[in-house]
Amino acid sequence: MIELASVIRDLRDELERAIIAAEGEALRFELGSIELELSVALDRSGQAGAKVRFWVVESGVDAALSATSTQRVSLVLQPTLAGANRPPFVSGRADANER
């Protein structure tokens, strides 16, 4: 299983690489909402002050979790660039007027 925070961090890294890899390309794609549907397992330790952790269930692991309750959750993420008031593009600048 993988922590939910790791899944989101890896997604962010992939999107950043896609933006950089398309630098200088004429064809651009506006990055819109990203929808994730995941199977998660809830882990709560019995210690005082313990946190609840959400683990993303990897493909093929469902059978091994028969004693653990899993749930399907859907997340909708809206990507933004720090300091920008427009959606990001998966490419570099298209013309000199873009900032």
Could you describe the 3D structure shown?
- Residues 2-79 form the Trypsin-co-occurring domain.
- InterPro entries: Trypco2 (IPR045608).
- The protein has 99 residues and is of the alpha+beta class.
- It has one helix spanning 4-21, and strands spanning 2-3, 34-44, 52-56, 70-77.
- It has one domain.
- Helices cover 18% and strands 26% of the residues.
- The chain has a 4-stranded antiparallel β-sheet with strand order 1-3-2-4.
- The N and C termini lie far apart (40 Å).
- The relative contact order is 0.29.
Summarize the structure.
The protein has 99 residues and is α+β, with helices and mostly antiparallel strands.
Brief descriptors of the model:
Trypco2 family protein; about 100 residues; 4 strands; single chain; about 25% strand; 1 helix
